[in-house]
Each structure stands twice: as structure tokens, then as C-alpha cells.
């Protein structure tokens, strides 16, 4: 036996005389142990690649047919959730789905009920839709073509025989699938728990029996799509950012304001000298099932583009409180600046 094949069996923990069923069982057992969705170690990805290569090598060398289906991480992104396809009966069924979650659902985890349908080849005709009988096709007498007569007996053209589809051999439509090559559609319904901290593009795998009373065995490979939020921006380290425009006058007055968090609105006290606020532990989980990061709130004071007459009067009154003999003490920087300007003018500079 080829040394590469022996190494492939050894990778699965089997001897070269292992049966196809034993190979499939070993593959399922190793996947449940080493799939990156279940194993956080750095060696998990490399181990899964070796497992899949070993199965492919054994399948090509011995079985010459469909082996255990690909790892869930190798699902095709164009798979349709509405019309899933399952692998042939002799292989492990892998049903590929996409599930969209809100940012809040991804952060806290959620439960979704997934429903769908799967189809597979008809086992009676192996997907062909017919059975080939002995002898020539009675309609075309084995030629695979039929002559189509033209007007007035002129020479016509030849077309493919409808009965044998150009094969020339007699065939009979499969009664089990009525010639479709497909078995009856089977539906499944399964409840899936999404852990907190899943990210956009994550792959989750659900093993076991699907459908009513476990009528369908297989594996559900789920790709997570997290919808973009209108309020939050998520960093890779779990930091959640939120830009909050606030009334400029409320900001000047050090009023409180309600800001959105993943849990809902939270009140913070504004400070005129502070435009950024940190809410510890209110961000997104740093890793799946892990602790949450922080949320950063960036405040943007907003003032009216045009002042009303009443607002202008109030602003003039406010300005008056910072000038004149009875003015309140100014900020040190502004006070120092005003003194420097007055001294500059007294020195005769600044005259035209």
C-alpha cells in the first residue's frame, strides 16, 4: 500500500483495513474535537486541514466515490438558504445556511428557529431518472436519432430520439422519482442557540438529528451575517463607538443626556471640558463567549445655525456677565489674553 495512504489512515487513528463506515465515524469524531468552532487552540485549523486531506486521499484510493462532506468552514457562500442541498445518502449531510443577526443579538446571544428543505438523489435510479434496459431503443432502433420529414417528402433533418435521448439503448422511466432523479423533498426544523459574541462571517456547526422526531440526520453549517447598525461602530477589539450629537446649550450648561447602549438608553452627565466618555463593560464581547469591551461615547455639541431674537438677547446678556467691572472671573487663558491685548494697545501698537 502507498505510504501516503497509510499515513492518511494513521491521521484518522485507523488501520489500512478500516471499512468505509469506520472512516466516516472517525472523521465525525475528529471534526467534533478539532473543528475551530469547538476548539480554540492554535493547532485546530492545521489539524482540520490534515483530517480533510486524509479523508480525501482514502476516498480517492479506495472508495472512488463521495466521502465525508467538506468541513463547515469550506461551505460555498452562494448557497441558498431557501433551497438547501444535502449530500448523497452515503455521505454526511451538510446543510449550508446564512442567518442574519442584529448587533444586539450577536452581542448577547439569541435563539433562532431555522426551517428549510433538503433534496437528494433518488436511490432507485441513482439520480438518472431512468433505468437502462437491455437491447436497442425500439423507437430509433438503436441509432439514437429520428428523421423528421419535411414537406412533399423532401429530405428531412435528423433529431435526437426522445425515448433514449440519443443513447440508442432502451430505457425505462424510474417509477420511484417519476423521472426527476430526485427523491421527495424533506423538511427540517431546528432550534439553534447562537452564543454571545459571534461576529460577522463566523461559522457555526450544529450536529445531530434535524426535523420532526429527528427524521433527518445531518450537520447544519451556519454562516453568521451581522447587520450594520445605524448607531454603533464595532472595532475588532470589542470597543463599541457611538457618536452622539447633543444640544450645544445643554452641553454648556452641563446638563445630562441619554445615550444609546446595547442594553438601551443610559444617562450621562455632560461636562463642558469633556467630549469623550468611556462606559466600561458596555461594549461588544472581545471574543466569543468572552467578557465585553468598553463603549466610547463621542459628544458633538450642536448650535442653531440661525439665532432667534430671544436667543440673541439672552446671548448678549450672557456675554455681558463676562465683561465690565461686575463681570464674573474668566477662564485663566482668556483673562491672560485680554490683559495682553490691553497692554499692547496702551503701548501705542495696533493704531492705524
Number of helices: 7
| Overall helicity | 10-25%
Which CATH architecture of the largest domain would you pick? Sandwich
Beta-strand residue fraction: 25-35%
What's the CATH topology name of the largest domain?
A: HSP40/DNAj peptide-binding domain
Secondary-structure-derived class: alpha+beta
What does the average pLDDT come to? Answer: 78
Structure description:
- This protein is of the alpha+beta class and 352 residues long.
- It folds into five domains: 1-68, Helix Hairpins; 76-120 and 184-227, HSP40/DNAj peptide-binding domain (Sandwich); 130-173, no CATH class; 233-302, HSP40/DNAj peptide-binding domain; 309-346.
- It contains seven helices and 16 strands.
- β5 and β6 (157-160) form a beta hairpin.
- α1 packs across α3 (44-63) and α2 (20-34) packs antiparallel against α3 (44-63).
- It is elongated and about 120 Å long.
- The model is unreliable at 64-91 (pLDDT under 50).
Question: Which features does this protein show?
Answer:
352 residues, alpha+beta, Helix Hairpins, HSP40/DNAj peptide-binding domain, four-stranded mixed beta sheet, three-stranded mixed beta sheet, 7 helices
Amino acid at each position: 500500500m502507498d505510504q501516503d495512504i497509510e499515513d492518511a489512515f494513521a491521521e484518522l487513528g485507523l488501520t489500512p483495513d478500516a471499512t468505509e463506515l469506520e472512516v466516516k465515524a472517525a472523521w465525525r469524531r475528529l471534526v467534533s474535537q478539532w473543528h475551530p468552532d469547538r476548539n480554540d487552540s492554535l493547532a485546530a485549523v492545521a489539524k482540520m486541514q490534515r483530517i480533510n486531506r486524509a479523508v480525501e486521499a482514502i476516498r480517492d484510493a479506495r472508495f472512488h466515490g463521495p466521502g465525508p462532506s467538506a468541513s463547515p468552514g469550506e461551505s460555498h457562500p452562494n448557497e441558498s438558504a431557501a433551497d438547501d442541498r444535502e449530500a448523497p445518502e452515503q455521505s454526511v449531510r451538510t446543510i449550508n445556511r446564512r442567518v442574519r443577526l442584529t448587533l444586539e443579538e450577536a452581542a448577547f446571544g439569541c435563539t433562532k428557529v431555522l426551517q428549510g428543505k433538503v433534496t437528494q438523489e433518488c436511490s432507485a435510479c441513482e439520480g438518472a431518472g431512468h433505468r437502462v434496459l437491455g437491447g436497442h431503443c425500439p423507437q430509433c432502433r438503436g441509432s439514437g436519432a429520428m428523421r423528421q420529414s419535411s414537406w412533399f417528402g423532401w429530405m428531412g433533418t435528423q433529431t435526437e430520439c426522445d425515448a433514449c435521448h440519443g443513447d440508442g439503448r432502451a430505457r425505462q422511466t424510474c417509477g420511484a422519482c417519476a423521472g426527476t432523479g430526485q427523491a421527495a423533498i424533506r423538511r427540517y426544523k431546528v432550534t439553534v442557540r447562537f452564543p454571545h459574541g459571534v461576529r460577522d462571517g463566523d461559522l457555526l456547526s450544529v450536529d445531530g438529528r434535524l426535523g420532526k422526531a429527528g427524521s433527518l440526520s445531518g450537520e447544519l453549517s451556519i454562516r453568521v451575517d451581522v447587520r450594520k447598525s445605524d448607531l454603533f461602530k464595532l472595532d475588532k477589539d470589542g470597543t463599541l463607538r457611538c457618536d452622539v450629537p447633543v444640544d450645544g446649550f445643554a452641553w454648556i450648561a452641563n446638563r445630562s443626556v441619554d445615550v444609546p447602549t446595547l442594553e438601551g438608553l443610559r444617562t450621562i452627565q455632560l461636562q463642558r471640558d469633556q467630549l469623550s466618555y468611556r462606559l466600561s463593560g458596555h461594549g461588544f464581547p472581545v471574543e466569543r463567549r468572552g467578557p465585553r469591551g468598553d463603549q466610547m461615547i463621542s459628544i458633538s455639541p450642536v448650535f442653531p445655525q440661525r439665532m432667534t431674537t430671544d436667543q440673541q438677547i439672552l446671548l448678549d446678556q450672557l456675554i455681558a456677565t463676562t465683561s465690565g467691572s461686575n463681570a464674573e472671573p474668566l477662564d485663566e487663558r482668556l483673562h491672560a489674553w485680554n490683559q495682553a491685548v490691553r497692554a499692547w494697545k496702551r503701548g501705542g501698537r495696533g493704531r492705524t
